[in-house]
Each structure stands twice: as C-alpha cells, then as structure tokens.
Amino acid sequence: xxxxxxxxxxxxxxxxxxxxxxxxxxxxxxxxxxxxxxxxxxxxxxxxxxxxxxxxxxxxxxxxxxxxxxxxxxxxxxxxxxxxxxxxxx
Length: 90
What we know:
By secondary structure, the protein is an all-alpha fold. It has one domain. The chain has 3 helices and no strands. Helix 1 packs antiparallel against helix 2 (16-38) and helix 2 (16-38) packs antiparallel against helix 3. It starts with a helix and ends with a helix.
C-alpha cells in the first residue's frame, strides 16, 4: 500500500500513460497477493480455495490481455499508416 501512496504523490513515471499502467500493475499485485493468502489453511473450505484459483486466473489473464492490447496498438497503427501511404490514390 505504501508504494501506491508513493506513486500517487511522487509520480516518477514520465507520462500519465506509464503512471496509470504502473498503478494498475501494483493493484493487480495486491489483489493476487490477497488471493495467494486464500490458498493457505487460512481458508478451511477446499472448494472455496479451488474457486479462488479461477479468480486468480481471471485477474492474471485480464492483466496479460490489457498489456498485450496496449502493446499491439502502436504496431497496428504503423501498419495502417504504411498501407495508407502505399495504396493512397494520388
């Protein structure tokens, strides 16, 4: 939690985009850490622990999908511009 306060106050990232992405990553890590605690004997019901596994998979896949989506935006735009310039009607 301290790292979120530091990130919010200091804003060490050069752009708002990177700053928001870093906060999203830290919130994901906090959520996954909580779910990892639910895999221990702290939760007595094995069915509940099993269901928490699906929650963990969902959060990890959501994070991966967002990052892959954000990483693919720039190359897709470059390819669009390449085809736009190559097949433009003069």
